Amino acid sequence: MRYELLIGLRYTRARRRNHFISFISLTSMAGIALGVAALIVVLSVMNGFRKEVRARILAFASHVELRAVSGRLAGWRAAADAARRHPRVAAAAPFVHAQGLLSTGQAVRGALVRGVLPEDEERVADIGGHMRAGRLAALAAGEFGIVLGADLARGLGVLPGDRVVLIAPQGQVTPAGLVPRLKQFTVVGLFEAGFHEYDAALALVHLADAQRLYQMGDAVSGVRLKLDDLFAARAVAGELRAALGPEVYAADWTRSHANYFRAVEIEKRMMAIILALIVAVAAFNIVSTLVMLVTDKQADIAILRTLGAAPRSIVAIFMIQGALIGVVGTAVGVAGGVALAWNVDVVVPAIESLLGFKFLAKDVYYISDLPSEVQASDVAWIAALALGLAFVATLYPSARAARVDPAEALRYE
User: Fold this and answer.
1) What is the C-alpha separation between 259 and 215, in angstroms, rounded?
2) 36 touches 333 (CB < 8 A)
3) Domain count along the chain
4) Which of 155, 222, 302, 358 is deepest in the core (most CB within 10 A)?
């Protein structure tokens, strides 16, 4: 073992007079460990929230949508067949997308009406897994059934079996003037996606009923596609745009819901910056630790210099001690943070039970449990940040130790 490493390791242990210095070293390790663990846990929870929001959005949204520039896709069967031939496309389903007004009694609510083929829609979205009453298959052509979001149904005050009137903005001209088109629908099911945009505004009807009400003939608004890899949506959308020509454009889920994911990503970055300051403060405590140690060990440094130790060896001794503090603190923080992030679903309910209240109440938040997803890339850059800051913190005290004058240090010894 090189003597620089031996002395550096020895200085990390308390000896007689330097108990206080050793205590500060331990607090620096603990600070780095706490900061690293907190950063890993918070970013893992943010990753979990992003994954949960994405799953809830994609339960009703498609990976890719094919739409006509004119707003009506007449040759949708040919477009769907062409899309199915793409190796990444797992399923395709036509849809009609329009706005409407739902009315029952004194209650009136605006709604986004989506006409679907139930058997095809189940292949591109997980609507069946979010049904709270009834089944999507209950939608049949010509029977004018409707499936409502839970919040929309609650606002209208209806349950399965009740009737609602759907008013389309497209009117028909009569001798009395322009009269809006309206049709009475029977509620055959309710769904709850846990996403306000869908639960409070989306209404599903059969494709044929929507085409008839909105006077679309055999045309549709577009075709929804499900891919075998949702993260390939942007590339597949670009390939389909080139293959289907200028009259059809493809929009992927990363663009249609960009605001939600951008907001989560910005929040994650800001939380990372804020919590990284904890690591920075703990790392720079190493500076005060090493400065006090250099002052305490001036006589030792002078003796080493008189025995022939080069200035770079003195630098190495104190850099080893500071690096050891950073390595141990980072290792403990990574281990503790990853363990806690993996067990958030156990730790948080235990804390809630102990304190007697729930952090995310079901009647307030759509996500009532803290999700967590540990990503190796996050753990890697957090560990690298902590080690880098610990290394930088050793530079000034080490350089100061190398400049100690042996004669001046031993004058009063």
Assistant:
1) 33
2) yes
3) 2
4) 222
What pLDDT shows up at residue 152?
92
- The answer on 230 and 275 residing in a single domain is no
Amino acid, single-letter form, for residue 237? A
Interval 207-232 mean pLDDT: 89
pLDDT at 118 over 80: yes
- Are 188 and 78 in the same domain? yes
**Closest to 138 (Cα-Cα) out of 123, 110, 113, 160:** 160
Q: Cβ(298)–Cβ(410) under 8 Å?
A: no
Average pLDDT over residues 293-302: 75
Residue 18 pLDDT > 60: no
My answer on whether 94 and 231 are in the same domain is yes
95-to-135, 197, 224, 342 alpha-carbon distances in Å: 18, 18, 7, 40
Helix 311-342 to helix 19-58 angle, to the nearest 10 degrees? 40
User: Is the domain of 69 the same as that of 154?
Assistant: yes
Collapsing DSSP states into helix, strand and coil, what is residue 358?
coil
Residue given tokens 């009475």 in the structure block? 184
Beta strands at 177-191 and 145-149: parallel, antiparallel or unpaired: parallel
Residue 188 structural domain: 62-256
pLDDT of residue 410: 66
Q: How would you class 264 by CB atoms within 10 Å of its CB: exposed for 0-12, middle for 13-18, buried for 19 or more? A: middle
What CA–CA distances, in Å, run from 11 to 22, 335, 405? 9, 25, 20
Rg (Cα) of the chain, in Å, rounded?
32
Helices (H), 297-373: 298-306, 311-342, 344-355
